[in-house]
Automatic annotation (TrEMBL), chain A:
Pfam families: FAD-oxidase_C, FAD_binding_4. The keyword Flavoprotein applies. Residues 49-227 form the FAD-binding PCMH-type domain. Keywords: FAD, Flavoprotein, Oxidoreductase. Its cofactor is FAD. SUPFAM superfamilies: FAD-binding/transporter-associated domain-like, FAD-linked oxidases, C-terminal domain. This is FAD-binding protein. It comes from Acidiphilium iwatense. InterPro entries: FAD-bd_oxidored_4_C (IPR004113), FAD-bd_PCMH (IPR016166), FAD-bd_PCMH-like_sf (IPR036318), FAD-bd_PCMH_sub2 (IPR016169), FAD-linked_Oxase-like_C (IPR016164), FAD-linked_OxidoTrans_Type4 (IPR051914), Oxid_FAD_bind_N (IPR006094), Vanillyl_alc_oxidase_C-sub2 (IPR016171).
TrEMBL record, chain B:
Residues 1-177 form the FAD-binding PCMH-type domain. The keyword Flavoprotein applies. This is FAD-binding protein. It holds the Pfam family FAD_binding_4. The lineage of its organism: Bacteria, Pseudomonadati, Pseudomonadota, Alphaproteobacteria, Acetobacterales.
Length: 479, 392
């Protein structure tokens, strides 16, 4: 278990008074203190870490969020923001002395404006829920993390979530126009708006991806886009990772930016095929899923060009989908990757480093060597166009040694990502999982500057304490 | 003027200025030194001698550029590899110097017509190196396309007008330049119908990458006789042909739809990008107002009523205005923007006006308090372009 800061004894000592204070702000259904009902909140998508929270509150309005934060600020109580609890980096892991602010009851879509191409939604609306609300009118919300069925837009704001289609459409920060942010002092500030550029400092850009360190977003103005006429996928399989990597370079080098460009290595292909029966070639070392969009004629033209490029790399198989059903089949294995790994291993860690794409062969080779050293299997799934690597390390959480090794293996992969010019996390966030590796990527001077910004928003370091920054530093520092 | 040719030189200069509490003007080539609030400084620290392109990896869609590199030099380098800057930064004809630096265009977060579809300069800043007001070198982001490690200072620095630190190097996402481009054009629409047509185009599945409306005077400045409404497609040649046809069919209800082929389209959008449709006089002021697109026409009309000229870009969402540099004209712009729930900049104006009025909307007090603390955390002595954005 990861180290968490010692609970504030004075808060624990005032337990009843704090509960009473929260109940004075929220309706009874919005305050949870009973251990049996707190239990579901003890972990998130990084389920090997667990901690029972001090209390959970479920506000229904921005004003209630503001009142809760003001109360916590006045009483020195730590706060952990939470959306759907799908964070893979432990971003919503509770603390024994912290109030978890769950946003799931703020789940309304307030406005969809097609003429001006935006929607206003509350933080507890699911990512897919936004698209579902506007798709009948031909629109969609672009970022599509794998957890999009469950994850909430508020959490996407916290982590600056990406997805398989961000090569073309960008990540959350590129698709959000404004947020209503509640500060720890209980102030409600609107950042951005229904327009594109905003005068003054880009607080919106700073807040997105700040992992709940600066405030809690309650309302979000997202850009919605008109859906393309259609999309179609193809599959290309190769004899070596290097060859598939070179093919990716050649596609991008030709001027084509597919909407998605996914890479799977041999273990990933086998695991996904066994699970989904998607028709993946089992004799391949590496496989690409490439998706394009446009009219049928445009799809044909683009896939024709891509197929020609792939053919230069001696592919084992090349399969261009001829229908929506065939495209869905090609995606089926990839989209079921987590389930597929879950089927062959009791537990897995999903890593999330990003690397310069030119270093892919070297990185995959090193990961293979580490896998042998640690005696743990790994399957690699990779957003190839943008260099975001997802090694899935398989282990057994009931075996302390296996878990310890898996964590060490994961940390080694992330160090490698930084060493080759990449970063610790491409879309999952630092959370609690990678906080102690921050020194691998940043100097103390750089971390100090980030901490000063945190202090400017949250002087007492009450918001999502023990995340993002190395634990030894999760105390306010003089600016 | 201090103009280091090594990164360490910026740290030395800033530490000395901080110790002496002597404010510095931070600039590249000074092309935008007449923007926003005037500043009182002891010296100027310029990036102009710190130039070069240490890394361009076309297949990774990235380029790393020293801040003092000219925008034109970067664009030429990218063009050699068939690539371009996604946000299409403007080369305004009314700048104080002909050339601008890459650091300057990031620090002012200025974007061209493509912003409506593909994001602003700030959306494509992957990494920065900067020397803060403490004289400390910091990095944020990196050289990869996806990176959520730590707070995103790249976005905070983009548009900060040199008030947090001196960016010494930026890494930008770049994309292949389109093989072809084309434009559909409608003549004679009023602003309301024009924005409705542009919304239909932007809300279509055809990936419109530019959407502007030039009223009478602006259209005449570009050689048209009547107002024009234009929407652009950039893609492979066969897609441009197909999509222009589809747009013609879609916009038919607004009038006769004409098509411009690649070269004519490029020339027209360059003019829109660079503000050539604005009849700017040297003593005039220039404003940018950013609103939700359907409110663009009302802002434009109110500005016209107050004696200003302007045009709409970003589908109606950017109102670009010029007019007399008076407090009354400025008040009219502010009022129109406020009624439209938008935001505004007094970009350029003679110094007396810029000194006496807000150049951007004042922040609510809660945010202003946070802003003062954040700015002080970067620049405790208050020596970097002090007061450039906000008076206090």
């Amino acid at each position: 278990m990861i180290d968490l800061p010692a609970p504030k004894q004075d808060v624990l000592d005032r337990r009843d008074a704090v509960y009473e204070g929260l109940r004075a702000i929220l309706p009874a259904r919005g305050v949870i203190t009973d251990p049996a009902r707190l239990k579901p909140y003890e972990t998130d998508g990084l389920s090997s870490y667990r901690q029972m929270p001090f209390a959970v509150v479920l506000p229904e309005t921005t004003e209630q969020v503001a009142a809760v934060l003001r109360f916590c600020h006045q009483n020195g109580v730590r706060v952990v923001p939470r959306g759907a609890g799908t964070s893979l980096s432990g971003g919503a892991l509770p603390l024994a002395d912290a109030v978890v602010v769950g946003m799931m009851r703020m789940n309304r879509i307030l406005e969809a404006n097609y003429g001006d191409r935006y929607a206003v939604v509350q933080a507890g609306v699911t990512n897919l829920g936004i698209t579902k609300a506007v798709e009948a009118d031909g629109f969609f919300y672009a970022p599509d993390p794998s957890s999009q069925l469950a994850c909430m837009i508020g959490g996407n704001i916290g982590m600056n979530s990406g997805g398989a289609h961000c090569l073309k459409y960008g990540v959350t920060a590129n698709n959000v126009l404004g947020i209503t942010l509640v500060t720890i002092e209980g102030e409600i500030v609107k950042l951005g708006g229904t327009h594109l550029d905003t005068a003054g400092y880009d607080w919106l850009g700073l807040a997105i991806g700040s992992e709940g360190q600066l405030g809690i977003a309650t309302e979000i103005i997202v850009r919605i886009l008109r859906a393309p006429e259609g999309t179609r996928a193809m599959l290309a399989a190769f004899r070596a990772n290097e060859v598939a990597g070179a093919c990716v370079d050649a596609i991008i080098g030709s001027g084509i930016i597919p909407v998605a460009l996914e890479f799977m290595d041999r273990p990933a292909i086998h695991a996904c095929e066994a699970f989904a029966h998607a028709g993946y070639p089992l004799d391949a070392e590496a496989m690409l899923i490439i998706e394009v969009e446009g009219s049928v004629a445009e799809q044909d033209a683009l896939l024709g060009r891509i197929k020609e490029i792939c053919a230069q790399f001696d592919p084992i198989s090349l399969k261009v989908s001829q229908s929506d059903e065939e495209s869905a089949a090609i995606w089926k294995g990839r989209k079921g990757a987590f389930g597929a790994i879950g089927r062959i291993s009791p537990d897995y860690l999903c890593m999330d480093g990003t690397i310069p794409t030119s270093t892919l062969p070297r990185v995959l080779h090193r990961i293979g060597e580490m896998s042998a050293q640690y005696g743990l299997q790994v399957a690699n799934i990779f957003h190839a166009g943008d260099g975001n690597l997802h090694p899935l390390i398989m282990f057994d959480a009931n075996n302390a040694d296996s878990m310890h090794k898996a964590e060490a293996f994961g940390a080694d992969i992330l160090r490698l990502c930084v060493e080759v010019g990449g970063c610790l996390t491409g879309e999952h966030g630092v959370g609690v999982e990678k906080r102690d590796l921050m020194g691998v990527q940043f100097t103390d001077t750089e971390l100090d500057q980030q901490r000063r910004i945190k202090t400017a928003f949250d002087p007492d370091w009450l918001l999502n304490t023990a995340k993002v920054f190395p634990l030894s530093d999760t105390i306010p520092r003089a600016a | 003027m201090i103009a280091p040719d090594e990164e360490e030189g910026f740290a030395v200069a800033i530490r000395a200025a901080a110790a002496a509490r002597e404010p510095l003007a931070i600039e590249g080539l000074g092309s935008k030194s007449g923007f926003l609030r005037p500043i009182q400084v002891a010296d100027t620290l310029s990036t102009r001698n710190f130039s070069g392109i240490p890394l361009h990896a076309p297949k990774e869609l990235i380029v790393t550029v020293r801040a003092g590199t000219t925008l034109a030099a970067l664009e030429a380098k990218l063009a050699e590899a068939g690539q371009h800057l996604i946000a299409e930064p403007p080369h305004y004809g009314f700048l104080d110097a002909r050339a601008q630096t890459v650091g300057g265009i990031v620090a002012t977060n200025l974007s061209g017509p493509r912003r409506v579809a593909w994001g602003a300069m700030r959306d494509h800043v992957l990494g920065i190196r900067a020397v803060t007001g403490r004289g400390e070198l910091i990095r944020s982001g990196g050289r990869v396309l996806k990176n959520v490690t730590g707070l995103d200072l790249c976005k905070l620095f983009a548009g900060s007008y040199g008030t947090l630190g001196v960016m010494t190097e930026v890494t930008l996402k770049v994309l292949p330049a389109p093989e072809a481009t084309g434009t559909v054009l409608l003549r004679g629409l009023d602003p309301h119908d024009a924005v409705e047509a542009l919304s239909a185009a932007l809300g279509s599945p055809y990936s419109v990458s530019g959407a502007a409306y030039l009223p009478q005077e602006a259209a005449m400045a570009l050689g048209f006789e009547r107002p024009v409404t234009i929407a652009r497609i950039e893609d492979f040649a066969e897609s441009v042909t197909y999509r222009l046809d589809r747009l013609c069919a879609l916009l038919h209800r607004f009038g006769i739809v004409e098509k411009l082929a690649t070269e004519a389209s490029r020339t027209l959008w360059r003019a829109v990008r660079d503000g050539e449709a604005l009849p700017v006089q040297p003593a005039d002021a220039i404003w940018r107002v950013s609103v939700q697109p359907s409110y663009g026409p009302s802002v434009l009309r109110k500005a016209q009523d107050a004696g200003m000229f302007g045009y709409l870009d970003w589908g109606g969402g950017l109102v670009f205005l010029t007019g007399p540099a008076t407090v009354e004209a400025h008040a009219a712009v502010m009022a129109a923007a406020r009624r439209a729930k938008g935001t505004w900049w007094l970009m350029r104006a003679p110094e007396p006006l810029r000194r006496s009025v807000d150049v951007a909307p004042p922040e609510p007090e809660a945010l202003a308090a946070i802003r003062r603390r954040v700015v002080a955390s970067f620049d405790p002595a208050g020596i970097l372009n002090p007061g450039r954005l906000f008076a206090a």
